[in-house]
Design brief:
- The structure holds two protein chains of two kinds.
- Chain A has three helices and eleven strands.
- By secondary structure, chain A is α/β, with parallel strands linked by helices.
- Chain A has an eleven-stranded mixed β-sheet with strand order 1-2-3-4-5-6-7-8-9-11-10, with helices on one face.
- Helix content of chain B is about 25%, strand content about 30%.
- Chain B is built from seven helices and 15 strands.
- In chain B, helix 5 packs parallel to helix 6 and helix 6 crosses helix 7.
- Chains A and B meet through loops of A and loops of B.
Chain lengths: ~230, ~300
């Protein structure tokens, strides 16, 4: 049994309340017309299909359910996702999957700037390109990009793994290319399969943390002190 | 925060709907900027006459004597029509001279725009009220840009409202803030630009007017802007025959573009675009940082 919500006539608040009250079943959402916070805060294993483009924070704070969007999304798609899955057929703008702790986010099109910023365990698969500062301060989880990555990929990254098939415009501070070991190929194969996107794991390069920013280096403070002394003398 | 919208018609199909569609887009951006709003509409109805849009905030002065004096200054015929506290002077004379003369000689008014194609209206208050007060919905033409302002850095005034226009048929709406506008304003004054506010966005408009007056194409002018403007910006820009979009290299300020065979629409958020005709067949994309996008009716 599928319940239908037409956002041309019902409010996002009523829709989200119904989704929060449900503990099973499937929902179909029509005419989102760029509305914000559509299907945010789901906590149960429901299936939600959204026909059309959504605004900010669609499927934010998502847990356990499966959300499938046929369209594009604005800022913060699946922000702080904890578990479950969010899949979009089109593009997502800034900060998709930001701070996500778990679950799977699949973006068939392009993702804008800061995709996966501060990701803490979410897995993200992007069919197209990703914008600048993607995976900034990423802490855990895997990010797969079938297209290219713009400037400063993985800046100040902790321990997330980044797999990119296309070109990387530049790597951010402390992000380096790393060897693809068998366990990485295996994990990448799983993620591609789960996403439904077609690509060969052999075509990807892996990037991750050089771990140079983990510790404070006494040499750096010596250099600072020397520079300060030089400036005042 | 602020909300910006732009609608550029590539064909004649929606020419009579330009104002209605722009008002619909502006309505969706109310929450991003409930303090004030403004719009500029371009049409080619009077290619031989410059229109100078003037604001006497909250007043409806007798414009006849001003028009009469302006006729002798320009040595050309001047007609004037009032729309509440705005007035549109039409003349076959020199529009740039008319603008400067009004700024220098008429007390307590601001010149909002001049050019053969552009009219520009702005006011404090709810964006829908601004739309209806100045009859945006019934306006026709080739392209329009509009803005809703949430004042964060300066007072809620009409002068601080967008769009800003200093050069002929050139205007701009801005989401963001510039950090080098004091210095730029000084430099631009030396190049003959005149400003009526302390607003950073007016400096951006003045910068483009200067470059276009020097003979730059819009693409070349925007390329220079990327070098010379320091700060955050998403701009929607109207020029005589065209429409352009520019975002700074960091692109914190949102933007989405949709394009069909008949129109190009740009807004801060997709919901402003979502009800445009044939939108389901539009190509929808986020303009890339530091990349110049422009469309021209001439090409």
């Amino acid at each position: 049994m599928t319940a239908t919500f037409d956002l041309a006539s019902s409010s996002v608040r009523d829709l989200n309340q119904a989704l929060h009250d449900a503990d099973r079943g499937s929902f179909h959402i029509a005419n989102p017309r760029g509305a914000h916070a559509v299907a945010a805060g789901i906590t149960s294993e429901i299936a939600v299909q959204i026909d059309g483009s959504v605004g900010y924070y669609c499927a934010g704070m998502h847990q356990r359910g499966a959300v499938h969007i046929y369209g594009n999304a604005g800022t913060g798609l699946a922000e702080n996702i904890m578990s479950g899955s969010v899949h979009i057929t089109g593009n997502a703008t800034m900060s998709a999957g930001a701070t996500g702790h778990g679950g799977l986010l699949v973006i068939e099109g392009n993702a804008g700037a800061r995709c996966g910023i501060s990701m803490k365990g979410v897995d993200i698969v992007v069919g197209g390109h990703v914008g600048h500062m993607t995976a900034f301060m990423a802490q855990a989880g895997d990010l797969v990009v079938l297209g290219d990555a713009a400037e400063d990929l993985g800046d100040s990254i902790y321990e997330a793994r980044l797999f990119v098939r296309g070109d990387v415009a530049s790597l951010g501070a402390d992000c380096v290319e790393k060897e693809m070991r068998p366990e990485h190929t295996e994990r990448l194969t799983q993620l591609l399969e789960a996403s439904g996107l077609d690509a060969s794991p052999a075509d990807f390069a892996r990037y991750g943390s050089a771990r140079e920013l983990y510790n404070f280096h006494p040499d750096d403070i010596d250099a600072e002190v020397a520079a300060a002394k030089g400036a005042t003398s | 925060m602020c909300g910006i919208v732009g609608l550029f018609l590539k064909t004649e199909r929606y020419r009579n709907d330009l104002g209605r569609l722009t008002a619909m887009m502006l309505h969706e951006m109310r929450e991003r900027g409930p303090d004030s709003a403004g719009f500029a509409v371009y049409d080619d109805a009077t290619p031989d006459r410059t229109r100078v849009t003037v604001l006497a905030e909250g007043r409806s002065p007798e414009w006849g004597p001003t028009a009469a004096t302006l006729e002798s200054v320009l040595e050309a015929e001047v007609e004037v029509s009032a729309v509440l506290d705005h007035a549109v002077f039409q003349t076959t004379g020199d529009g740039r001279l008319a603008r400067q003369w009004i700024i220098d000689n008429v007390d307590d008014v601001a010149v909002l725009s001049h050019g053969t194609q552009i009219e520009l209206y702005k006011s404090v208050g709810d964006p829908d009220l601004v739309s209806s007060r100045y009859d945006l919905s019934s306006r026709t033409g080739t392209h329009a840009i509009a803005h809703t302002r949430m004042a964060t850095e300066s007072a809620i005034t009409t002068n601080g409202s967008h769009p800003f226009s200093t050069g002929a048929n050139t205007c701009l709406v801005h989401n963001g803030s510039l950090s080098n506008h004091f210095q730029l304003r000084k430099q631009l004054r030396r190049h003959g630009e005149s400003f009526q506010t302390d607003n950073d966005s007016e400096v951006a408009a003045g910068y483009l007017s200067w470059r276009l007056r020097e003979g730059d194409s819009i693409d070349t002018a925007l390329g220079s802007a990327l070098v010379d403007l320091d700060g955050f910006f998403t701009f929607a820009i109207g020029v005589e025959d065209g429409f352009a979009i520019l975002r700074d290299p960091i692109s914190c300020k949102p933007a989405v573009v949709a394009e069909t065979d008949d129109w190009v629409a740009m807004s801060s958020e997709y919901r402003a675009i979502a009800r445009l005709p044939d939108v389901e067949h539009a190509e929808v994309f986020e303009p890339e940082p530091a990349r110049i996008y422009s469309w021209s009716r001439a090409s």
